[in-house]
């Protein structure tokens, strides 16, 4: 529905993120004029576009659909109650006026105890093993035990109790996908790898990086998949360099045995990923003053230069 409140909310969120209309439009794949028209209440955007906007503005999509108005739902108020006050049997398992169900609100509240409570009471609906939002929620909270075994799903097509059926499947970890193939001529551009990812891939990668967990990386199977292919690096390795996520780079070097190369160091420098750059410098075969001078961590550079000069002096003696 066309609603000026929707546009005002989006404009406020855009300004908080310090995006211009053109910048936001480029991120979601529409024109600056379309962003302007939506903010003025002159244009209705598709749900697909609104979903991309909500992702980049860090807001629930319902804020852009309903303009912040409450479409007469009490489900969220019920879910917010402390566990000892929840009456699971009285909670609705269907979607509310916002188009959300119990699982959506549990994820929004980032509550693992409530997820376990509703799950044990068989109140969560849908194929859980293929729910990307649930997968990311569990990854961010480092719930390895849940992720590493089949999860039970209750499938309710909404046609009566007799048609409800159960399924037990292992979680589906998504393939990391690009919106379009990266242009090799732009390899030195900062944020190349990450900016080219699809929205779902960004959600997944962000969750893995926020987990900070090697146990999560072990579940992904990327390491086992490439361990017999010498010098083949997974996309997540380059994304970690670019986003300055050192635990991922350390994992592939220490646990999987992938060697660190000059191009990896150069990518870290180009992306201003100094934490990763210092780790690579300490663990690859190009410990030169030229490389060291590219690092902006002055304390690290000073210590390493002293060590290098000390080694040179001992060799000369």
Give a description of the structure.
- It is a single chain.
- This protein has three domains: 4-66, 434 Repressor (Amino-terminal Domain) (Orthogonal Bundle), CATH 1.10.260; 75-169; 184-316, no CATH class.
- It is built from 20 helices and two strands.
- The chain has helices at residues 4-16, 21-28, 32-39, 47-57, 61-66, 75-79, 102-109, 112-120, 132-140, 144-147, 192-195, 199-211, 214-220, 222-226, 235-243, 246-254, 262-270, 274-283, 289-292, 298-316; strands at 151-155, 165-169.
- The chain has a two-stranded antiparallel sheet.
Short description:
The chain is mainly α and 317 residues long. Helix content is 54%, strand content 3%.
Number of strands: 2
Q: Kindly give the count of domains.
A: 3
The largest sheet, given as strand count, sense and whether it forms a barrel, is: 2 strands, antiparallel
Determine the fraction of residues in helical runs and give it as a percent range: 40-55%
Stretches where pLDDT is under 50 for at least 5 consecutive residues are 159-163, 182-190, 312-317
């Amino acid at each position: 529905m066309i609603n000026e409140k929707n546009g005002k909310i989006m404009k406020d969120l855009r300004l908080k993120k310090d995006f211009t209309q053109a910048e936001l439009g480029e991120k979601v794949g529409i024109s600056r004029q379309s962003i302007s028209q939506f903010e003025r209440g002159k244009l209705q955007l598709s749900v697909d576009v609104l979903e991309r906007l909500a992702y980049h503005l860090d807001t629930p999509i319902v804020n852009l659909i309903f303009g912040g108005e409450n479409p007469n739902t009490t489900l969220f108020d019920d879910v917010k109650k402390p566990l000892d006050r929840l009456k699971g049997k009285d909670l609705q398992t269907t979607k509310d006026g916002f188009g959300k169900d119990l699982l959506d609100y549990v994820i929004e509240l980032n509550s693992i105890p409530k997820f376990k409570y509703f799950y044990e009471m068989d109140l969560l609906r849908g194929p859980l093993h293929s729910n990307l939002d649930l997968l990311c929620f569990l990854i961010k909270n480092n719930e390895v035990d849940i992720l590493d075994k089949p999860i039970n799903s209750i499938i309710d097509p909404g046609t009566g109790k007799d048609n409800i059926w159960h399924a037990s499947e292992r979680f589906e970890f998504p393939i990391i996908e690009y919106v379009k193939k990266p242009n090799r001529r732009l390899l030195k551009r900062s944020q190349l790898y990450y900016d080219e990812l699809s929205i779902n891939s960004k959600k997944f990668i962000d969750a893995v990086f926020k987990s900070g967990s090697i146990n999560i990386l072990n579940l992904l199977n990327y390491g086992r998949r490439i361990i017999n292919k010498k010098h083949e690096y997974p996309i997540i390795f380059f994304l970690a360099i670019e986003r300055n996520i050192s635990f991922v780079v350390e994992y592939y070097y220490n646990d999987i045995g992938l060697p660190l190369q000059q191009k990896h160091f150069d990518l870290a420098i180009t992306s201003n990923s100094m934490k990763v750059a210092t780790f690579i410098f300490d663990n690859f075969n190009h410990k030169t003053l030229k490389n060291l001078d590219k690092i902006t961590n002055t304390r690290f550079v000073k210590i390493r230069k002293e060590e290098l000069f000390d080694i040179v002096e001992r060799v000369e003696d």
